[in-house]
Amino acid sequence: MIKNKRSKMLAVFAMVLISSLGCGKQNNSSKNDRSFLSILLGIPAQPTMKSVTRSVVSLNEPIGLRSAQEESENEQDFDESMDVKKRILIPTVEFLKPHGVAKKTVQNIILSECTGSFVANLQPEEFVTFLKTHDLDCIDNFVWTYDQYSNSIYSQANMLAVMRQFSDIAPVYDGTNGLKFLQLYRIFWAGFYLKYFYPSIPFDRNRISQDLIVPLQIFGNSSNFLSGTDEAGEILYSFFATANNAEIGEAVYPNIVSFLEISLSDQQRLTNSYSQANALFAVFTLINRQTHPSFPQFLASIDTLLIEALAGLALNTSFNNDSQVWIVNTAIYSLNNIYHYLPVWQSMITLVLTDVLSTYPYLSEPYLWAVRGVTQNSDCANLSTGQICLSVTKNSVKAMAFPNTYSFDDGTQVVYTSLSLTSIQPLYHALKQVESQFFRLVEILAPVSGDPTDSISMYVYGSLKDYRVFHPFLFDLATNNGGIYIESNKSFYTYQRTPAESMYTLEELLRHEYVHYLVGRFIIPGMWGQGSVYANERLTWFDEGMAEFLAGSTPKEIRPRKVLVSQIQYDASSRMNVPQIVTAHYGDFKFYRYAGNFFHYLYTYKKNTLRDLIRTLRDSNIQAFDSLVAQISQDTSLDTSYQSYLDSLVLNVNTLTNPATETPKLADLSTNDPAVIQSILRATTVGSMAKCTTAVFGINGRFSCRGMMSGSLRSSPDWIVAWSEFNSGINNLISTLETNQVNNLGSMNCRMGEIYFSKYSNQFYPSALYSCEGPLAYRTPISYSHPAQDQLDFRDTTFGVNSTCLTSPTSGTICNSPISTSVFPSTATYNEMFQFLNWQFNDLKAEVFMMRPPLYKRLNCGLNSITTVSNQTTGNQYLSAISTCSL
After folding, report:
1. CA distance 183 to 71
2. Which residues does 114 contact at the CB level (< 8 Å), separation at least 6?
3. CA-to-CA distance for 611 and 629, rounded, in angstroms?
4. 631, 697, 799, 846: which could join 445 in a potential S-S bond, CB 3.0 to 4.6 Å?
5. Bridge-based pairing state of the strands 413-417 and 456-461
6. How many whole angstroms separate alpha carbon 804 and alpha carbon 884?
């Protein structure tokens, strides 16, 4: 809920940007040219990012309306209860209905009329009458949706009828909506928006846009055009949004300049009226969209009047406050954009930007945007006041934003932050809990072949304000999110937040983002967003659902999170169903909570389905993945069961919790010797054959212990039963040891590898690798000798006892391990034998990697020389092969 005038104003700032932004088609280079606007307005420009709000919008697409209700709705969604002047919500095509009992009652009364099915049957003049006699809530219920009624609603006849009505009343505009200008504008605005995405909509785009020019100009010349009331402000932003989406900005160029000038001379209208500020935002978005070669007529219109007006706003220090600095920043960006595309104005704009650098504090937001502007052509610019260098300024910002660097796991996890080590330590240990549950789920304990993300950097800003001011400047990334993981950079970025800024804690955000890292490193080959597996947002629900699900990890289980269920509690009848979840696209945050809890539902009741989804992705079998998703989507009984599951969660919401990890007492740990840990584990049933090593040195030393588990003999190879048996086994191991006098074991996390079933006397028993890790007291780091240590480690595994490791200047260290399967009867198929061989191979990789993850972070293995060996007398057979691993 928008609680005060200021926050309401900020919400509408976001709304007007969404409402009016649109763009002509551009090639890739032109998209890159426009990354400044993406950053300034909170729209991601990089296609290879993972984030809690990964947007897919680009500046070559028009953007539709986001209602005030949806602004309120998304305050409950992923990390969105924040100052929204830069939070740009990317709308789905559908327009949601307002919340609130009273509003819903009204909507129920008029619902039969406020639908596409009703309006599509109206004749053109009846359609105009309908617009004149219904409010915007009613109209917004159908104009933004593309469905079977859209072609009738947006027929050429209807659009011309609306045009005639608009032309008739434009000369008599009195500064109010008495003649229903807002309703008429809405049809043009939404019509051009939908026409972009659905060209089959029948109205003639070129004719309607050209026919709009004269009535828009007549409207803009009315004496009441610049009226300063709230209602007039709403009409103004509809005016500019329509001109923007119709791509006729040059036709209203004088109105753009006049509105900027009155905004500068009468600043109280921006302070006192959120809709007037909204209109200014609409003007900015029009300018910045159409200052581009795609709009040559608008470029030709730009003159000193516009530059002087923008300069006035950019240099007006009265706007340099938290609620209005966006005006200064966007004015500077607009000048930067003109500088870039119209060299004729570069000298004039350079003088303005030089004044900006002298006017605003060093490293303030306006200062940084001005640095961006003057260094567009080179790293350094020689100004009348001296030299300014982008690289030098970035280094200064980094030093201020990230004064502390903490290196964990022998440099494979590095945190850059202004926060103290005491604040970061719980986050590190939270990620260890996420890791353990992730590996139990995926059953593969070594990275995918050739994965390049062998380390991760975490940039944690000290506050939301720092994130918004510094993050775009340092990394060219948007801030309309709670955090972003960019796989190609091997980094994710987030900030410390207060409860007033976000319902999600920093720990929850890091847990979520870390799952994205793990999925890319251990399940899906290649970079995020690249490759056919990501086509058409196939994995959107999977990526975000898994991240939300595993964010609830503890050492022994994965818990439903109260913060997600609480939101579902208030969704009431507007819950998402399973088909909607598995086809969700980025653009709204609502699906996050449903996808996360759907994963938990599968984990609880359909674990084999969850396993199969993960395995198809691990095996790059897109067709099988799509088939599984289709089955899930079409299973109505599954959706019914899932909705019942949600009912039970909501019923017990007050018993749920959110993750909050405590740091072990690292200064008081009992031992720094993994041999001590090993002796204790070997006294247990599960750990009787455990082997332990020092996995990590440094401020957070870690031990790693591993061994093989065998399950009960059963009549069939039941994976779910075996998984549950092994999961309980390692949980019991944790419970048994967590109160041990050696207190290192009180913070131990365990995982397990792939389950394989061996046949014995027509029955089956499962086997799986387990690995447990936890804290060690400080120990002086050891410098390992290669390839000697590597060979020792490979030979200390279950299936690598005959390994040989060699090092050469050209190929580095290579370890070859001969592997042979057990003997199979003559009736066994090659596939049966290969499954066992592949399990041995995966186990070998996992054992080596888990011993010392930082040392073997670049482990890359393949199977070679696979041979079938047969006994000519008995017919028995087995497979042999060579595992070759580069380190």
Report:
1. 21
2. 107, 134, 137, 138, 139, 141, 142
3. 13
4. 846
5. parallel
6. 10
By three-state DSSP, how is residue 713 classified?
Answer: coil
Determine the Cα–Cα distance for residues 191 and 246; give it in Å rounded to an integer.
9
User: What would the two tokens of residue 675 be?
Assistant: 């041999």
Catalytic residue among 513, 548, 725, 773: 513
**pLDDT tops 80 at residue 681:** yes
CB-CB contact of 244 with 202 (8 Å): no
Q: What is the pLDDT of residues 405-451, one digit of tens each?
A: 999 999 999 999 999 999 999 999 999 999 999 999 999 899 998 89
Residue type for position 261: E
- Are the CB atoms for 663 and 421 separated by under 8 Å? no
From the CB of residue 825, how many other CB atoms can be counted at a distance below 10 Å?
A: 11
SS3 of residue 413 by DSSP: strand
Q: Which CATH architecture has domain 784-887?
A: 2-Layer Sandwich (3.30)
Q: Where are the domains of the chain?
A: 97-384, 404-655, 664-782, 784-887
Q: Please give the sequence-ordered ranges of beta strands (E in DSSP) within 701-846, or none if there are none.
A: 701-710, 749-752, 756-760, 763-776, 804-808, 812-820
Cα→Cα distances 617→64, 448, 525, 614, Å: 34, 11, 9, 5
* Per-residue DSSP letter, 93: S
Q: Residue 108 contacts by C-beta under 8 Å, 6 or more apart in sequence?
A: none
Angle at 490 between CA 486 and CA 493, to 5 degrees: 55
Phi first, then psi: give them for residue 808, nearest 5 degrees: -135, 155
For residue 420, what pLDDT is reported?
A: 98
513 is catalytic: yes
Structural contact between residues 668 and 750, judged by C-beta atoms closer than 8 angstroms: no
Query: Given this chain, do its domains 664-782 and 784-887 carry the same CATH topology?
Result: yes
Tokens of 72: 């309120």
Closest of 286, 265, 288, 263 to residue 276, by C-alpha? 263
Determine phi and psi for 744, rounding to 5 degrees. Answer: -55, -35
Please tell me the pTM assigned to this model.
Answer: 0.85
Q: Under CATH, to which class is 664-782 assigned?
A: alpha beta
CATH topology of domain 97-384: Leucine-rich Repeat Variant (1.25.10)
The C-alpha atoms of residue 455 and residue 857 are separated, in whole angstroms, by 8
Cβ 782 vs Cβ 871: under 8 Å: no
Question: What is the DSSP secondary-structure string of 203-236?
Answer: S-HHHHHHHHHHHHHHHHTSTTTT--SHHHHHHH
Place of tokens 């008995």: 874
Write down the pLDDT at residue 112: 76
Tokens of 674: 């993994």
Question: What spatial distance separates the first Cα and last Cα of the chain, rounded to whole Å?
Answer: 54
251-270, pLDDT tens digit by residue? 999 999 999 999 999 999 99
Count of all residues that appear for the chain in the document: 887
Q: Which fold has domain 404-655?
A: Glutaredoxin (3.40.30)
CA angle 729, 735, 737 (to 5 degrees): 105
pLDDT in tens, 13-66: 333 333 333 223 333 333 334 444 444 443 333 333 443 332 223 444 554 554
Residue 130 neighbours by CB under 8 Å, 6+ apart: 113, 119, 122
Q: What is the dihedral of CA 639, 641, 642, 648, to 10 degrees?
A: 150
